[in-house]
């Protein structure tokens, strides 16, 4: 992992996101890593997962573990460990990872599209999705802090910048919760709602470092996604966001983040004789 992140520091965020997207669909069973087949469209080909990265790195780590301990370490455990190590190598907290997960045999793009928390979601919707995974409102706020790492393509947030006024034209600021100066900067990168050529940092100036600056951006109405802004404007989450944003409680936040990551990593895991231990993460045995 040290070599992977040293060679590509921007990969820490994608690996963390890969784990998150895995755990929210069928639990942490590495189903997000499976390739589609002639008879099935897998999770990774669902629209919310089209921009996921890091699959090759997971396969490389899995191959090395398989060579050393064949049939022992699951892809689900590999992905969970890699997401933890990615955060640590990005100067974030360490947390213990319980092992013994098994790999799932089912992967559905339809399930991923229906069950992943949307970037446009408000707090009631996001809280409902989190609760269905055994995660509470505090977990929602704390795990949103993962947006301190990584980047996003324009289509995931550009609807906040433009409203379509004609077949080929765009104009007008849609989302008044977005700081206007920040919106202007984003428009320079995203020429249209469908612009897939540019990436924007989710935590500008610190997108390769695990810290609390994400919350300071959110508190200034500079969260990239609607779901980020929702945390500031909902009464149930606003105080928590503003407290973290002060920078006076970083140790407490990192402890909370670690606890929430442990909870998420235990969502609906397969154990014992359930599932399998894949030889290669992208295909069933």
From TrEMBL:
<keyword id="KW-0479">Metal-binding</keyword>
<protein>
    <recommendedName>
        <fullName>Peroxidase</fullName>
        <ecNumber>1.11.1.7</ecNumber>
    </recommendedName>
</protein>
<keyword id="KW-0873">Pyrrolidone carboxylic acid</keyword>
<feature type="binding site">
    <location>
        <position position="43"/>
    </location>
    <ligand>
        <name>Ca(2+) 1</name>
    </ligand>
</feature>
<feature type="binding site">
    <location>
        <position position="29"/>
    </location>
    <ligand>
        <name>Ca(2+) 1</name>
    </ligand>
</feature>
<dbReference type="InterPro" id="IPR033905">
    <property type="entry name" value="Secretory_peroxidase"/>
</dbReference>
<dbReference type="InterPro" id="IPR002016">
    <property type="entry name" value="Haem_peroxidase"/>
</dbReference>
<feature type="binding site">
    <location>
        <position position="27"/>
    </location>
    <ligand>
        <name>Ca(2+) 1</name>
    </ligand>
</feature>
<feature type="binding site">
    <location>
        <position position="25"/>
    </location>
    <ligand>
        <name>Ca(2+) 1</name>
    </ligand>
</feature>
<dbReference type="GO" id="GO:0006979">
    <property type="term" value="P:response to oxidative stress"/>
</dbReference>
<keyword id="KW-0376">Hydrogen peroxide</keyword>
<feature type="binding site">
    <location>
        <position position="203"/>
    </location>
    <ligand>
        <name>Ca(2+) 2</name>
    </ligand>
</feature>
<feature type="disulfide bond">
    <location>
        <begin position="75"/>
        <end position="281"/>
    </location>
</feature>
<keyword id="KW-0349">Heme</keyword>
<dbReference type="GO" id="GO:0005576">
    <property type="term" value="C:extracellular region"/>
</dbReference>
<feature type="binding site">
    <location>
        <position position="148"/>
    </location>
    <ligand>
        <name>Ca(2+) 2</name>
    </ligand>
</feature>
<feature type="binding site">
    <location>
        <position position="22"/>
    </location>
    <ligand>
        <name>Ca(2+) 1</name>
    </ligand>
</feature>
<dbReference type="InterPro" id="IPR000823">
    <property type="entry name" value="Peroxidase_pln"/>
</dbReference>
<keyword id="KW-0964">Secreted</keyword>
<dbReference type="InterPro" id="IPR019794">
    <property type="entry name" value="Peroxidases_AS"/>
</dbReference>
<keyword id="KW-0106">Calcium</keyword>
<keyword id="KW-0560">Oxidoreductase</keyword>
<keyword id="KW-1015">Disulfide bond</keyword>
<feature type="binding site">
    <location>
        <position position="31"/>
    </location>
    <ligand>
        <name>Ca(2+) 1</name>
    </ligand>
</feature>
<feature type="disulfide bond">
    <location>
        <begin position="23"/>
        <end position="28"/>
    </location>
</feature>
<comment type="function">
    <text>Removal of H(2)O(2), oxidation of toxic reductants, biosynthesis and degradation of lignin, suberization, auxin catabolism, response to environmental stresses such as wounding, pathogen attack and oxidative stress. These functions might be dependent on each isozyme/isoform in each plant tissue.</text>
</comment>
<feature type="domain" description="Plant heme peroxidase family profile">
    <location>
        <begin position="1"/>
        <end position="285"/>
    </location>
</feature>
<feature type="binding site">
    <location>
        <position position="211"/>
    </location>
    <ligand>
        <name>Ca(2+) 2</name>
    </ligand>
</feature>
<feature type="disulfide bond">
    <location>
        <begin position="154"/>
        <end position="190"/>
    </location>
</feature>
<feature type="binding site">
    <location>
        <position position="117"/>
    </location>
    <ligand>
        <name>substrate</name>
    </ligand>
</feature>
<dbReference type="GO" id="GO:0046872">
    <property type="term" value="F:metal ion binding"/>
</dbReference>
<feature type="active site" description="Proton acceptor">
    <location>
        <position position="21"/>
    </location>
</feature>
<comment type="similarity">
    <text>Belongs to the peroxidase family. Classical plant (class III) peroxidase subfamily.</text>
</comment>
<keyword id="KW-0325">Glycoprotein</keyword>
<dbReference type="GO" id="GO:0020037">
    <property type="term" value="F:heme binding"/>
</dbReference>
<dbReference type="InterPro" id="IPR019793">
    <property type="entry name" value="Peroxidases_heam-ligand_BS"/>
</dbReference>
<feature type="binding site" description="axial binding residue">
    <location>
        <position position="147"/>
    </location>
    <ligand>
        <name>heme b</name>
    </ligand>
</feature>
<dbReference type="GO" id="GO:0140825">
    <property type="term" value="F:lactoperoxidase activity"/>
</dbReference>
<keyword id="KW-0575">Peroxidase</keyword>
<keyword id="KW-0408">Iron</keyword>
<dbReference type="InterPro" id="IPR010255">
    <property type="entry name" value="Haem_peroxidase_sf"/>
</dbReference>
<feature type="site" description="Transition state stabilizer">
    <location>
        <position position="17"/>
    </location>
</feature>
